[in-house]
Design goal:
The complex is a heterodimer of chains A (about 400) and B (about 650). Chain A has about 400 residues and is mainly α. Chain A contains 14 helices and three strands. In chain B, a hairpin with a 6-residue loop joins strand 18 and strand 19. At the A-B interface, helix 7, helix 11, helix 12 and helix 13 of A face helix 1 and helix 2 of B.
């Protein structure tokens, strides 16, 4: 064991660790900067209200990260861990259905014994990656190769996945839904299943998708395409057509980015955070970063997150271990996609959906689960290095 | 196993490429927002943050030729309110309504609007300075008073129909205010308070002062002193003759500068809404177009002399009281006719058949040509709002009868300003100047001259010799003829009367005349030319000679010191006509002894002052013309 750790830390992927810690601390500073006004004026709280809470989140996250980073990733395919995760997922979803809390138009929160508001959909993202990768891997070990997996072998995790998709869909948390669908597909694609099986899976999913869409159109039209969502589409096409209502978020994000210019107004000097940009410490934190730090802030975030994502893909492409490949690809896709949905919405490339900016935005659930994912990724990376040395 | 990896690798590569492309796209988009849209967005963002309290700059002033202010501005603040800075709207409404004595409910409704900045108008627009101070002293959070102005008129109604007025937002609506609105308009300054979304001012961002600019000052050619004299005379005439309207123009004949311009009845520009629009929309000297009557004869006269078809002194004309033109009998105003007269006398007597003769000698084409050359039939270009162009006969319609009547000023329709322009040319040596009223336009802040109008020569219409003869003829009119009531001793006033029946529906209106007089002085070198017309005076004798001539006489008499018009000795002496006051020219008594004076029987009384053997001082001065009822004071000394 001692030898393992010695060897492990000798080959540890410090670059990922460095970037991960850097982004979190940078995020912490920016959360403090952007939330002071909100804390004092809006919530009548003390100016470091959000800062303190995020600090606690980060400490908790680091503990979880440590656990994840020292747990050999192969364990994730063990029946026990998969079973526990599955059970937790089930409980969370049921909890959500029974006692979900409605915050900002989405019923996607549950209160964990009053300690924190927890988003099961965040957990679902990590769960899908681990559960798919682990299950596929176990089956392939039984069969002897990924190639030999049949459609029946994958139908059970797919079923579980469909269940989650439906629940999240009914929560009407569009951003999370997109990510959950996308990472599942990426894990399936990168698993190494043979083309025929893949084809069947996609055929079935497409059919289900079409049926689902028709169902939504018929029964849930009003909920899914509610006024605020339709507004988001029109404000995406022309945010300045209605700058005070539907275009408000986008326009004020633009003002922040535009007003900052290349150099930025300086740390702490944002004006848009003073009640103009809604929730400047969460989804719109990038706008405040751009306003205060200009191109420098934008570069730190994009290069940092880009490095994590590209490093993940590099590992996935170069490893010979299918489990490692699936985990690395899934986690990278998750972080990458979430970054791009957040920044794409902010910069007007895609319609706005409420997802956080990984590692930077304020939010307990997000930082905790992303830290676990980072732990797994670094673990995979380190093992990959170890393997190469052999 | 190997190819599985390869395949997965290939699939992954595509996903990675897609993500990289998307990542680059986002980066580019963000930076482009920061760079390309920076100017636009940062301006918009600032507008989003600021709450502008307007500081209205001053509208341009209007001054007379000597820079005396005719129209300026008075401070009249307007109240603004930021609803987010004060929750107690009831209290604010109470305070405002109490101080201003305005409807509380209406104000409260305004204050409760969910907007960033409320302009409390009209309730608290243009309040008095004292009211604003009272409200400021109450120190109500969120309530601001912005600087605002209203027009002020130190001379009241003076020049009102020419100046026009401004509306509630200080925009020019009539007259000069309308015509020169673009120049007079100010661009407003403002304090930009940067605030957070709740309207709290930002400590770390400095308030910005947005610079405004006062409107340009317009310096008119008008002379306020003369304008006051003219308006005094006109308003008196309005009362005395119970006239419908009256108008006057005074001009410098050697440049076209309008020195005074008056229309009656007038109005109060601060209460324009209470008067009929025809009052403030019609600037009579340029708007009215009517048959000029005898004043137009000056044109016929000038043309005849210039064309050398008459010897004014030696040619004679017999007036039988009428003349026949193509079977039409054209009457002279004097029924029995003026009998035999020289052409100077024709002018003195304003004899219509005599002018028909002159017109015929000139020829119809030539006469029409002169009328056009003198600027009739089209606008003068004076740039005064609401100018008309008058009506002339077309060449085709200009038959012998029309030709004949036009010769003495009937059948054509002209504006007073056209007559001024033409007559000024006839008497100033023949130069037709464009009349104008705006001398200079000055920058409102720096007083730099932006534009300066110089006299503008349109044409040389007659020669100096002709002009001299015309002046002489017109001096005779005042000294000996129909303009005698304009005579002022030594000032050498010359001029011509006019009496025209008004036309309504193509027929002359009985007993409704416009009487006019156009006069200038001194006759040898004119410094000022004045035209007065009174519309429908209700007195026994509706003649220009009786009503308009004395007004012009008084105006020129009072204006003489302003334009350095000295009394001259070599004037044409006035003829005595029965009914005139008897006048006498007094000799120089200074140096004479009492004994030498007494034996001479002077027709006036002499009052002695002091002791001594010699006269050392006399009042009035030697050579003055006095009435026989006046007293001459002689002071004795050694």
């Amino acid at each position: 064991m001692k030898h393992y750790f010695k060897n492990y830390f000798r080959n540890f992927d410090y670059s990922l660790l460095f970037v991960y810690i850097l982004l979190m601390l940078f995020g912490l500073v920016m959360i403090y900067s952007s939330s002071i006004w909100i804390s004092i004026i809006q919530y009548d709280a003390n100016p470091n209200f959000y800062y303190n809470r995020q600090l606690v989140n980060i400490i908790l996250a680091l503990i979880l990260f440590t656990v994840a980073v020292i747990t050999p990733y192969k364990r994730l395919s063990s029946k026990t861990i998969l079973g526990v995760l599955l059970a937790v997922m089930f409980i969370l979803e049921l909890w959500l259905i029974v006692a979900g809390k409605n915050i900002n138009g989405s019923k996607s929160w549950i209160s964990l014994f009053g300690l924190m508001n927890f988003q099961p959909s965040e957990f679902a993202k990590l769960f899908i990656i681990v559960f798919f990768a682990g299950t596929f891997y176990r089956k392939s070990v039984n069969r002897g190769s990924m190639q030999l997996l049949t459609f029946d072998d994958v139908s059970y995790p797919l079923g579980m996945w469909l269940f989650i998709v439906l629940v999240v869909g009914f929560e009407t948390d569009l951003g999370a839904l997109v990510i959950i669908v996308a990472i599942a597909l990426v894990v399936v694609i990168t698993s190494g299943l043979k083309g025929k099986t893949l084809g069947r899976i996609f055929g079935l999913l497409s059919a289900l998708g079409v049926v689902g869409m028709i169902g939504i159109l018929i029964f849930k039209w009003d909920t899914v395409f509610n006024a605020s969502r339709r507004g988001r589409i029109t404000s995406f096409l022309d945010p300045f057509s209605d700058p005070l209502n539907s275009g408000y978020h986008v326009v004020n994000g633009y003002y922040a980015i535009g007003a900052g210019g290349l150099e930025g107004r300086g740390l702490g000097q944002s004006i848009q955070k003073l009640g103009y940009v809604p929730e400047p410490q969460t989804d719109f934190i990038m706008a405040i970063i751009a306003e205060e730090l200009g191109i420098l802030g934008v570069s730190i975030v994009i290069i940092g997150l880009g490095y994590i994502v590209m490093r993940g893909y590099y590992i996935a492409m170069s490893t010979m271990d299918p489990l490692a490949r699936m985990l690395a690809a899934g986690i990278s896709t998750w972080i990458g996609l979430q970054t791009f949905i957040n920044l794409g919405g902010l910069s007007g490339l895609i319609p706005l959906t409420g997802v956080t900016l990984p590692f930077i935005s304020y939010g307990g659930t997000s930082i905790l689960l992303l830290s676990v994912a980072m732990g797994i990724l670094i673990n995979v990376s380190t093992h990959h290095k170890l393997e190469k040395r052999k | 196993m190997k190819w599985v990896t390869t395949k997965s690798k290939k699939r992954l590569t595509w996903i990675a490429i897609a993500l990289v492309v998307y990542g680059v796209a986002i980066f580019v988009k963000l930076v482009s927002v920061q760079v390309i849209q920076y100017d636009k967005l940062s301006t918009m963002a600032k507008e989003n943050w600021d709450r502008e309290i307007p500081f209205h700059a001053e509208r341009g002033k209007i001054t007379d030729r000597n820079e005396e202010v005719i129209v300026s501005n008075e401070l009249a603040p307007t109240l603004y309110f930021m609803p987010s800075q004060n929750e107690d709207k009831e209290y604010v409404a109470d305070a405002i309504s109490k101080v201003l004595n305005k409807d509380r409910a209406k104000i409260l409704k305004k204050l409760e609007q969910r907007i960033s900045l409320v302009k409390i108008a009209p309730e608290a627009k243009n309040i008095s300075y004292d009211q604003a101070v009272t409200i400021q002293q109450m120190q109500i959070p969120g309530l601001y008073s912005g600087v605002d102005y209203v027009r002020s008129y130190p001379h009241g109604n003076l020049l009102a129909r020419f100046l026009g007025f401004t509306g509630v937002d200080n925009q020019g609506l009539a007259g000069i205010e309308y015509e020169y609105d673009e120049l007079l308009k100010s661009s407003d300054a403002a304090i930009r308070l940067f605030t957070d979304a709740k309207g709290n001012t930002l400590e770390h961002v400095d308030d910005e002062w947005k610079n405004g600019k006062d409107g340009a000052t317009i310096q008119l050619t008008i002379d306020l002193k003369l304008q006051k004299i003219v308006e005094r005379e006109l308003s008196q005439a309005m009362v005395e003759y119970d006239a419908d309207q009256a108008l006057a123009i005074a001009m410098n004949p050697n440049s076209g500068e309008i020195l005074a311009l008056a229309s009656f009845p007038t109005y109060d520009p601060t209460k324009f809404s209470e008067v009929d629009p025809s009052i403030y929309n019609r600037n009579l000297p340029v708007f009215m177009s009517y048959e000029p009557g005898s004043t137009f004869k000056i044109i016929t006269l000038s043309a005849a002399i210039e064309e050398d078809v008459v010897d004014m002194e030696h040619d004679h004309f017999h007036d039988a009281g009428y003349t026949m033109v193509e079977g039409a009998r054209l009457r002279c105003w004097k029924r029995e006719g003026h009998k035999d007269q020289s052409f100077y006398e024709v002018v003195q007597n304003s004899c219509n058949p005599g002018f028909v003769e002159l017109g015929q000698r000139i020829g119809s084409d030539k006469l029409l040509e002169y009328i056009h050359r003198f600027g009739f039939g089209k606008k003068t270009g004076s740039n005064i709002a609401g100018e008309s162009s008058g009506i002339l006969f077309s060449k085709e319609a200009f038959g012998p009868v029309e030709h004949a009547t036009t010769s003495f000023g009937q059948g054509v329709s002209v504006t007073p300003i056209q007559q001024m322009q033409a007559v000024a040319a006839a008497i100033n040596g023949g130069t037709l100047y464009k009349p104008y009223t705006v001398a200079k336009i000055l920058d409102g802040n720096t007083n730099e001259v932006i534009m300066e109008q110089k006299p503008e020569v349109k044409a040389q219409v007659v020669s100096e010799e002709t002009s001299e003869k015309v002046r002489h003829a017109l001096e005779l009119v005042v000294a000996k003829g129909s303009g005698r009531q304009a005579f002022r001793d030594g000032l050498r006033i010359a001029g011509k009367t006019g009496t025209a029946q008004k036309v309504e529906n193509g027929r002359y209106k009985d007993g409704d005349y416009i009487v006019s007089f156009i006069g200038f002085a001194p006759a040898n070198d004119p410094e000022i030319i004045v035209y007065v017309a009174v519309d429908n005076p209700k007195s026994g004798l509706q003649f220009g000679s009786v009503i308009a001539a004395p007004i012009v006489g008084r105006i020129i008499e009072d204006a003489a010191p302003l334009y350095n018009i000295e009394k001259q000795e070599n004037q044409i002496e006035r003829n005595y006509v029965w009914g005139d006051e008897l006048t006498e020219r007094i000799p120089n008594f200074v140096g004479l002894t009492k004994e030498k004076v007494i034996p001479n029987l002077y027709p006036y009384r002499i009052q002695w002052h002091g002791e001594g053997n010699e006269v050392i001082e006399q009042v009035p001065k030697p050579d003055s013309q006095i009435l026989q009822t006046d007293i001459v004071h002689l002071y004795l000394g050694n």
